[in-house]
Records
---
Amino acid sequence: DVKNDPDKEEEIKTDSPIATLLNRLRDCVNRDLIDSFAVEFCYQNNKGNRKRLVKALFNAPRTQLDLLPYYARLTATLAPYFKDIPEQLNFMLEEELNFLQQRKKDVVQLDAKIKNIRFLAELVKFKLCHPNTIFGLIRACLDDFTPHNIEIVCNLFEVCGRFLYRSPGTSTRLVNMLEIFAKLKQVKINDPRLETMAESAIFACNPSKRAAKKARPPLHSYIRYLLFEHLNTQTVEYVTRQLRKLPWDECESLVRKCYLRLHRYRFNAVAPLAQTLAAIARERKQLTVCIIDSLLEMIRVDLEVNDYRRHQTRLMAVAFLGELYNRHLIGTH
């Protein structure tokens, strides 16, 4: 009798469709797989299966932290329809984390702590876990600034620090905690490994701003656009017409520099570049002579120095010289 045989009953549960589906959970390593898993779970939804799913999510392997963002995505996908899933998962994660935090000297449990806090941090980004939970953990770790707690704070900052920093409601609070963390790092962290982790965590929250692009006058930007980006075999005539319309008293030196910055061009743009120079050579004889003289000097210097880093530019310069010869701008001498 199956009802009186616990082993047989457990075997049937193991071979059930929900068990087969949950066994695939660890193989869901991208968004498409986890989304299809969510759809299939909806066809097997009931209260018992939801509890099994929460247990499977809670028991995520500690050595596969890369699965946690997809587990959080699955929870967020199902949350609008099954509100008990995120509630139970949050409760289980926080309960275990509070228990582990009481065992401060247990080195073995550090991996379990990191898994739980990273999972909670992923849920925060989907707004399934309240930010106060994360801030409470950060505050507790800053108050007891031990190596274990330093690693926990670093993991929290790396996973959800940027999200909290960019969110209007939590930005000020996170900035204050980052300042406290930075001061404690300078005073109390002596281990190079922990110091590197702390610096990476701070950078993850607030990356340094990139250097602003150089502001150029609109005319200079337009000339650079014409020669560097728009010039090709089909646009030679248009570019030539636009160059003839330029106020040469203001931009002749810039045009000369653009013609000589050959590393900015593709190789198939060398012939059109020479063609445009040949077209304006009669009106701009001085410009043409300056470009040719500078080109010859650049080739001579490159041949003398023989720097391998300028090999591509050297080839472009020689090709440009050959195209100028084809356009009868230079002679064989």
---
Amino acid sequence: LKHTAREFARLSSHEQAHVWNDLTGDEGRRRTFGTDGKEYFTKGLFEPDDLVEKALKDLDDEIEKLPTDQKGALEKAMQMSKDYVSSNFRLKFLRAEKFDAHLAAVRMALHFEEKLELFGEDKLVREIIQSDLDEDDMASLSSGYVQVLDALDFGERKVIFYYKALSNIVEHDCYKHRENIIRSFWYVMNVISASEDVQKLGVVNVVYNLGGLPRSGIDYEKSRRLAKLFKAIPVRFCSFYPCIDTKFWKIVVETFSVIINRFLLMRFRIIEGDHEEVMLKLKAVGIPSEVLPVTDESKLLVDDHLKWLAKLKMVEEAEALEPPNKRSRAERELKIETFDPESISNLCKNSLSCYTVG
């Protein structure tokens, strides 16, 4: 993209280094582990206690400085439950913004504004779980158009996979209403934001737009809403790799690049070619393309995704028995390792793209 190159050239050398660091994932590769098994990050990721304590105080100060009309939902959340808006919760936003307290405050305010609009006040200060999603939301979620890959990229970061720009295509729909895909995207990103590795290293994004076209054009309002969510989720989006094979998809991607903010634009890299060429090019930039949930004919696979959702549902049902203030994913790790075949079967019924479940 020509405008991406122009914007990149205008960055300072320090800013350009940050962009390349995100694209290459150098921080993750430089992590080391001591003989005690503990992880020791490099300078850019090291978080001494005094740094965290000061950053949390600075974040509170920056929240106080925000205009009243920008932090109404955030203030409401803090009044409703200080246990939910805990230090660990706030730390996610600081990590997403590399400990820039002002940017973290802006992201946090937007987070609660979007959450209030999507889920309502009664769910504002608790984790969103699958039972909070309606039937159409669950159909969108289980369609597999947004998936978290099992393998990490070369920089040890999670890879988020998007199919056909989250558009309804000729073969089948991924959403009935625009809000369905937006709420399902929120759910997926909120789940992975509990991981400390995700908080510190961020994620990379692969948008697979090969084969098949949208049935009724591109919903650019949906794209605008998703672009806004990218700035509200407490996750750092380190890179975007839209994969395309036609002029139509190139126009779609270039239009989306105008919608996103400058931060994401600098980390936007288009990959062109047929399926085999795209797989090789993704591997060249450190993406484990062999685990992408698509066939050589560009058909979507969802088996692993459905198992992941079934596992999450079991965890959520178990957590529902705990006191509300202990239901923040930022406080716990997932511990259930088994799958419920019946849950997977029920999810399959909502997914038009499910082939088989082994």
